[in-house]
Structure formats: C-alpha cells, structure tokens
User: What shape does this take?
Amino acid sequence: MKRIILILLVFIASQVSAQDAKMNAFISGLMAKMTLEEKIGQLNLITPGWGIPTGSVVSTDVEGKIKSGKVGGMFGVIGAEKVRQAQDMAVKSTRLKIPLMFGSDVIHGHKTIFPIPLGISCSWDTALIRHSAIVAAEEATADGLNWVFSPMVDVSRDPRWGRVSEGSGEDPFLGSQIAASMVKGYQGASLADKKTVLACVKHFALYGAAEGGRDYNSVDINRTRMYNDYLSPYKAAVDAGVATIMTSFNDIDGVPATGNKWLLSDLLRRDWKFNGMIVSDYTSVNEMSNHRLGNLQEVSAMAIRAGLDMDMVGEGFLTTLKKSLEEKRISLADIDRACRKVLEAKYKAGLFDDPYRYIDESRKSEILTQAKRDFARSIATQSFVLLKNTNNTLPIKKSQRIALVGPLANDRSNMLGTWAVSGDPQLSVPVMEGLMKQTSSSVNIAYAKGANLTDDSVLAKQANVFGMRAEIDKRTPAAMLEEALAIARSSDVVVAVVGEASEMSGEAASRSDITLPPSQVKLIHALYATGKPVVLVIMSGRPLALTNVVDGASSILQTWHAGIEAGNAIADVLYGVVNPSGKLSMSFPYSVGQVPVYHSQKTTGRPMDPNNKFSTKYLDVPNGPLYPFGFGLSYTQFSYSDIRLSANSMNATGSITATVTLTNTGFRDGAEVVQLYIEDKVRSITPPAKELKGFQKVFLKAGEAKTISFTIDVNLLKFWNSELKHVAEPGAFEVWIGGSSAEVKTAGFTLMK
Assistant: This one.
C-alpha cells in the first residue's frame, strides 16, 4: 500500500511540475514581447468606484487606461454584461490582448448573503463553512467574477475593533481550521473549474491587533507572540494553496506591511514558500507616506522591493516605477517578478485560455436560487449562540401570544450585516415575517418598534453611510416605549430584537463603548418591569458588553447579523424547529475596561487570588469574561464522563488518545461541540493558561451517548520559543475536554525526553 501511495504522489508531482513548466514557458514568452510600460500596467488594480465601501479614492479615466494597457485588474465591476464590456477593451483594444482579472469583496456570500463570518465561525462546523465558500464562488463566477478578497483571517481579541465581524474570533487554532476550509471552498479541487475563484487571504499581517481596537491603527507585537498567537491562520491558508494574499494597513516592527520586506519576502516567500500573487489593500501603498516613510515614488519603490506585486487603486506603481527604475531605486527584476506573479494568477484562473470563461449570461439562474436561500437559512441557525435560557423560556410555543418589539424586529436593512457589497437588503427576511410564517395565527404576534436603534443623531449618521440603517423615528421615544409596553402587558412572552445597525461594525466602525445604545437599554429595562418573560434576540457584528441587560432577561439568543434568511432562521430557533448549537468564537466581556479578555491569556507571577489584594484582578468586575470562548447552551443537556487517556506518558514519536463519553441527558435531539484544550505546565517561555487544540461537532439523539476521541501527538504540543524555533519541550501537560473553555474535565500526561 505504501508503495502504491508513493507512486501516486510521484505521478501527481510530475503532473504539477509539467503544468508549472507549461505555465512558465507561456508567461516567459509573453513577457519577452512586453514593453516596460505594459509590464507596469499589469501591476495596476483599479475600481470605477461604484458603491465600493472601502475608501474615498476611485480610479479616473478607466476606459482610457484599459485600452492603453495600464490596467491589470478591476474590482467593483459586477455582472456578466459589465464585465464583458471591460474585458472587451482589454482583449480587443490592447496590443497584446492580455485579459483583466475581476475581483470583489465576497465576504460572506455574494448575492445569497450568509451570516457575518464571526457568526459563521460560531458553528464550529468546517464542512458547513467550506460549503458556504463553494456557494459564494458559484454565485460570484456566475456574475462574471474570478477573484474574491476573502477569507479575512485576522485573529482579534478586541471587540472594539469593528472588523472582528469579518473574522473568526480570538483563537488561532479555530481560525486556522476555518481559513483552510474557506480557501478550499473557494478554489475547489482545481481552478480549472469555472465555478471556482482565486481566493485572497487578508490582511497580512496582524491587522486584528490594532492598538485600542481602532481601525488602521498601529500594531506592536513581539515575535514570539506574533508566531504563537497571530500568524497561524495565514499560514494555514498558504498551506491550503491560497492563490493570492492581501497586505494589511498596519505597521509591523515599525514598517508598514505593504512595504515590509521581512514580512513579504522573508517570511511569506522564503519561509512559507508562498508562490502566489501579493496585492496591496486599498491605497495602502500611498498611505505609507502618512507613516512618514517618504513621498509616493519612494514608498512605491519600497513596496515593490519588499515583494508587493499589485497596487490597489493608488496607482503609485503606474506613475512612479519607471522613474524609479531609471534612477536605479529599483531593478527590472523587481518589475518582472511582480508582472510574472500577476500573469500567473490570470493563467491559473484560465483567462488566457478563455478571457470570457466567467462571462456567461445563462448562469444568472444560479444566483439566489431557493436551494441557496435554504442553505443560508440552515447555516444561520447553526451560527446562533444561546447565552441564557432561564426556566426553558425557549423554545416558544406557537400558541403563545408574542409581543415582538425592538428596532430590529421588523427591519430588512440590517439583516445582511456589514460587507455584503452585492447583497440586496430588501430581499432579506425580517424577524416579524419569519415568525408570522410559522405561527398558528397572526393574531398571536403583536409588534411595536419600542425604541430607535440609537437616539444619537451623530452615531446614526455614521451608521447610515451606505444607506438607511439607523432611522430615527418621527415619534417621540416616550410614545414608542408606551406602545411597546402596552402589547407586552397583554402577551405571554416578549421577544425583544435589539443590537447594532449593520454598519456599527465592520471597516472603519470601531467603538469605544460596546454596550447597547441607551435608547435600547431603556426599552429593555421597561419590558423587564412588566413582569413578563423577556427573550432578548441580539444582532451585532461584535461581542457586546451585556452586563447591564443580562439579569432581567429570561433568555438571550445571540444571532449576529444572520444574512438574507435571518428572519426565517431566527423563527426556526425561537420556535424550536432547530435546536441551537452555536458556540462563541470570541469571549464577551463584562466591561470594555477588561478588553482584551480571551481564553488563552497567560498566567502571571501573581495569579488572581480573591483573598490577596496584591494579585492580578480588578476591584469592580471579575477577571474573566461574561460569556467565555466556546460557550453556548442548547435546548437539551449534555454530560461528559471523566477523561480516559490511553497512556500517562509519550515520547516525541508517539501519541496519546484522550477519550470521553458524551451523553445527551435531555429530552431533545441536539448537537454539541466537544472541545480539546491543552495546558503546558512548564516551559521555557510563559505559556497560555490553555490552548484550543481540537474540536468535534457531535449530533446526539435524546438519551444517546457516544465515545469521542482525540489523538494527541507532539505536533499539538509545539510552540515557537524565544529563538523562533518550533519545538515541544518535555514535561507535564494537562488535557482539558468539555463544552466550553470554562467547563471542562481534566487529566494529565508527560512528554518524555
């Protein structure tokens, strides 16, 4: 068998080598015909600026630049007809007829919008997540696109940062699994399939660690923390074969990522063997001047020398590289390398074989199909996290009288969430509609808005930058509140749908105060005062500080921004058609003053001791989160047996199996995410308290039990030491297995020398 596998691997390698040789020969032949200006033109990525929510700069004279060979790719052009018009200019009006690439920010679906990525990550279901990328790629390619600026894999522990909504939360292990799944979903088994796209992992690197949680801010992280806590999701994407990578806005060791030679050439190219194309983020080349690193010519030269291949929108490459070459600030080899990488990406996408292969009007029927909407509904239900359920208030009986209140209860405009650039909010399903479809009688549901999302006109204006998201009602807050209280008093249960507008999170949407706006808090407390059981349905793009509303709630369901089928999915869970199984991928703080708070924080020389004043703790809140990483309730209950280890020790070439018996002790079928954590008891640099090292999502019928096993080998025990060597050190380890990072069974073993 081993011989057969070896022969197969050799055969595959030879085929790949032959394909690479064919590509290299084609591109070398093409580049031999290209002028310097044509090579530089390939490095220019532009946008016509049609509603692109990234920056204020847009490209000018787009048609003229394409026809003169000064454009390598475009984004913001969506729809087969529009893409064809632009591609015609490139392949019919330019000397060498080099086709354009067409990209877009397909972040959580294209037209069929799924939950925001932070929400999807709470499913802990990598097969489901991979399928979401497959569906998104099918729709994107049916709309003329061949390149998506996704997945965003930045680890972040700071919920003030608005872009936590686009990522997979606080943990590098979970983030790495999701990053690889997304890349494989977008790119498929082969990019020869015209329903696949070039993926673009972003933002390389460390963008999620922006100081103060403020977007575009500086990052200051030492190398051991960089390697141990932040880099692995990018590396996982590279190992999964990602075709392109986008640089980040922040600096690293004082050098902006877009011009950072250590990052782009030493780490990414040399150490990680990445052989794809590197593109800047939106005008990040130009913005290096704001970092005080020189004028546009100087920073453009710095970026291409560092290893950047394509310049997004800023056109520093287009306007300065020729002069820098003449002045010997850069070499022709720098330009040739970058041009080759852009052309290779086009070759891999099949554009030289057929520039129009993604332009097929007949594929419009593949967009927003009922099957895709059904999948969006399903993945949304898997992303919801049940945070509280006192007295089994949920699920609601369909015969109960519901007072449906809140500024997001009958709203379409905020269901999609941030970064749904191609989605139509008016096609989304609001909560009221979803509940109405499933209730036995519409008279069982009474609706009142109750409050504005915010009464702050300044905050509302910022939330409305891409359309009306936070409308301030013409009625007085008192009148809206009284209407809500009237229907609440005559109900059996109150469902209050509250949270953030979609654009209160996302890019350029950092918040220093991550509590619910005062208008909504006032509504919630007034509803509690009625004495009726109140179910909070919370929509947000980040973990919120919910301490001031938790105590009075009977139940809390965190739904994030759930996408185009939000209302139907929420109704499925509220009525118990679906048993919630989501687990938090990011901790919820008691207070913003705790931030960052996350499960793998290091222990200190003075660990928290309630009886010792001189230990690490706050005076006013606990050290730990309100809701910890990995937490999530169900409508059923699960019990864990003690951990059984196959051995108490192992050597560097061996392994240990850790086993628990998981039992559904409740009366409903349900799914549980079984989580494996490992604690390194002694090592050469300070370890985290514990680290996630495995997980399995398990479905059990009521009363059913299953044996769940994890294999622990030396690779799970490795870390980057102070010399940046990836090692596992002999000594004692603790295994933790449970349903969250805070509720676990434990057992110990030793790694022998």
In short: The radius of gyration is 27 Å. The chain has 21 helices and 27 strands. The domain at 638-751 is CATH 2.60.40.10 (Immunoglobulin-like). The first strand starts at residue 44 and ends at 46.
